[in-house]
Amino acid sequence: MKLFLGALAVFLFAGIGILHIYWGLGGRWWTENIIPERDGVSLFTLIPAGFFVVSALFFFAAWVVLARINLVWIPLSPSLVDLGIAIMAGIFFIRVVGDFQYAGIFKSITGTPFSYWDTRVYTPISAMLSMLMVGLRMP
Question: How far apart are CA 49 and CA 79, in angstroms?
Fold first, then answer.
């Protein structure tokens, strides 16, 4: 079961990482849906370096998951790998709850392209990743 959970998590992490590389290299597909906005103004500016940093974090997360299911070696103790899995579960759970304004299940600002896709895609994927990380921690 852990192998299946881990493979699903790695697939999601790698896919999201590849998408961020695409955006970092200048791709524009879907970018109109990834930034929260207020009164039609984006809350932040997209920069390539940001996409590459996020991509690296997702690929690192995939590597940690692969280590957790014993498919790759990582220069960390098993207890640190397990701690990393727990931290990822917490991070994605916090993302599901959200910031109470723009993202997550308790967002108050709706009616924007970001909020639409956050409700239908981003928050559910975050919930799935959180649950997968919890599943990977089970004995």
Answer: 32
